[in-house]
Design brief:
The protein is α/β, with parallel strands linked by helices and about 400 residues long. The chain is built from 14 helices and 13 strands. The strands form 2 sheets. It has a 7-stranded parallel beta sheet, with helices on both faces. A 6-stranded parallel beta sheet has the order 10-9-8-11-12-13, with helices on both faces.
Length: about 400
Amino acid sequence: MKITIVVGGKFHSFNLAEQLNKKNVLKSLITSYPNYSLKKYGIKKEKVKSLLFKEIFLKIYSKVSFFFKKFDYELYLCNYFGEKASKQIDYAQTDILVGWSGFSKESFLKAKNYNCLKILERGSSHIKFQESLLKDEYLKIGIKPKIPSKKMIDKEMQEYDLADYIFVPSQFVKDSFLKYGIDEKKIVKIPYGVDLKEFEKFNNSKKAKEKFKIISVGTVCIRKGSHHLIKAFDEISLPNSELIFVGPIDKEMNFIIEKFSKKKNIIFFGKKDQDKLKYYYNESDLFILNSIEDGFGMVISQAMACGLPVISTDNTGGSEIIDNNINGYIIPVGNNEILKEKIKELYLNKKKLKIMGLNAYKKSLTSLSWENYGNKIFDAYESLYKNKI
């Protein structure tokens, strides 16, 4: 069994490639990242085919995007990478072709002429479900929706049809596909893992004496529900507390940032390197992912591995790993009253906060590793491949 991966970006593809490589089934990884990026994952450069245009383009475009407001750069990059990647695949020697949504239409079309299994990786909800959720949220706020273009949606819909199977990370994502008529037999659910060497719990005896710190990691944007979290935290006015955001700030959030700019207990650290995140987690008491739509927030696993209890909406895939009232809370999306209630509960009950954090850490050690994910996905691939032949 030989597997080729096509991904225009990173996502969890490097972790997947690492696990498949350990089992000696990885034929090649076609990515927009340079091959030296895979060195830490133990993948030889001969197995990596780097198409760097996408990442170079994004760096340039971010500086001149103001002049190209109507340019659908996302569709352009997906199409360009997809076409180039489709020419790099040895279809005759590939048993399973794993492609990321948005980048796989071209490869899947060519693979139809060969006897290889086509598996689509989709980390977010069905693109039409995602569009509907986000459009509703933007309309509530009264700003222009930031959603995929019609052509981008059409492309992903074609990928859903071309794929033999669609791999998703959570029941939330699976349900969104079922809602739009995708056959349940076509959907395989396997939650992602976390690097337990990179994310670890420190022994920090000072934490209890410091401020009560809430942390949220990821892009500060409408999709992540950052506006709701900021508003909820401000309204409960907890003495000696801080709300910390680690991640880039989307321009759409400027109206919120400006409104709360004078609040000294709401802090935006901006984007930080992955290897620095564990320090921010370990200096905090509680992690919150308040997303409107998030197929599977891998930051939840990271926070739990660092010993933090988690509050997450039911639209994040968090229910796959959070045991309600044991190591965190799953709350209804967009419900600020329940969000405030759970924050106050853990703020006032330090003993429960500590116990839930310890439970989260223990959960990460027993079931959240990438090795565990690798075993599950290998078994799934092997079973589907054997059924095909």
